[in-house]
Design a protein that fits this description.
Layout (H helix, E strand, L loop, with lengths): L7 E10 L5 E9 L8 H10 L14 E8 L7
Antiparallel strand pairs: 1-2, 1-3
The structure holds zinc ion.
The site of zinc ion has 8 residues, from loops.
Amino acid sequence: MFEGTASTMVFLVHCQCANCQRSSTKRVPIPRVEGAPSTVDEFIEALEHNPVPFMCRHCESLIGELVGVTLERELEEG
Ligand SMILES: [Zn+2]
């Protein structure tokens, strides 16, 4: 499923639906390339310029409020 050629960071964007108030988490894989955000702070900064499309999985509302961003723990291999 995942390409193993380049390492990827997976940010978890936590949003709360403005309509039904339920929280959703969206996984956003970011390849480790030059200029790509490598920390949560940088990712949030990037989000301000390029917001991640939101759609509530419960009610399909397109309006969500950003609650927080976390970094998914990298897979431990070996
Ligand atoms: Zn909703």
